[in-house]
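Schema walk-through. Below, the input block comes first and the output block second. Nothing else is stored per chain. Lengths vary across the set, and this one has 477 residues.
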Amino acid sequence: MTEAVEYDVVVVGGGPTGENVVDRARAAGLSTALVESELVGGECSYWACMPSKALLRPAITRADARRVPGLRQSVQGPLDAEAVLAHRDEFTSHWKDDGQAAWIDSTGARLYRGQGRLQGPKKVLVDGPEGERHVLTARHAVAVCTGSRAVLPDIPGLAGAKAWTSREATSAQTVPGRLAVVGGGVVGVEMATAWNALGSQVTLLVRGGGLLPRMEPFVGEHVADALTEAGARIRTHTDVAAVVRADGTGPVTLVLEGGEQIEADEVLFATGRAPRTDGLGLETVGLEPGSWLSVDDSCRVEGSDWLYAVGDVNHRALLTHQGKYQARIAGAAIAARARRVPLLETDRWGAHSATADHAATPQVIFTDPEAAAAGLSLAEAEAAGHRVRAVDYDLASVAGAGLYGDGYRGHARMIVDLDREILLGVTFVGPGVGELLHSATVAIAGEVPIERLWHAVPAYPTISEIWLRLLETYRDA
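--- output ---
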């Protein structure tokens, strides 16, 4: 049975990004359909942000408590792994999407379950779970919000080894005795932190010279020191040449370049992401299947007047909060174009321009210590041709850090554009610094002049006093 229906907007992909496109389109009065092949809520709700942070929160809270005199003696025992995993399951709604599907219904949008794919301009074919077929036509726009997926490297033996990716790492129901983690990026270090705290003996294998290579170098150094002190083993400049696991069960053996072998009960490969655009019918509209989709600042696919790519699929910033931000931009742009309202394309800070993707993208890495950054690193700023100065300060020297806990260690850096006297980037590493980040994001996105930042007085004694110390260091050099 085939059903043909017409909507103003068709959204393919029901994660947070797709949900926000739906919300903005419906708020503008546009009829909207949402197509989802798995769970409404997407990767973030079930296999990424929510379950990973539910696993990490007990580890970070215990570490913070152990820094406080009078409290550390009460938290010396192991974490209750069963309770942590049960709490994680609650945060994922036990991998059921009833609540989020009900929210879609409450907006007035129509939810189609099944695999959606383009079938030429403005048409989406949906094959439902019971063999039904729907042909959806969009009057104004189709938005592709299908996200990204984990990539496994081409290593002998890996295909049959049942290795973990980020999905298995955030949804596992038991704690492995030994966990090997391949990759030193965000997923690798966060999951190493979580499972090490839950009782696994973690070995982290990194091809490069350190952790978190896309951030300022001092960030990876702090995180590596803390992981090592917590009992994890870190091997840098290490390549995995083969994986051996009989029938995908039992212990797994990693054969390293040079022949050395490491044995573990589970292995997590955290080695990158790829766009979920395979099988999406991109070839029917002249685009390459499986590719990232290049977009303008309204998230409209370059060369198209109706196709939008929002969130991970456009490869601008693979972060849930940035995908939701892009969705608000795209929704406003779709509505304006549907009403033939002229867009101020030259207004870089207008409602239809995702400027923050270029200037002030924030990210928090929930390790112990936390790492937080917004805008550009020193290397990125210099590569972009800016005349800049890096201003550094020891976070442990701020009065609020000493109150936060004994032995506090951390570091802060701000990148100053010397020609415009504004901030291009800020990076923090240290316990609790994630809550400092929005002030940095506001300063960067708002292009607040250094002379005005002087008058944003930080409360004493808080870790936020780092702002005063950074500004003093810049002034006094």
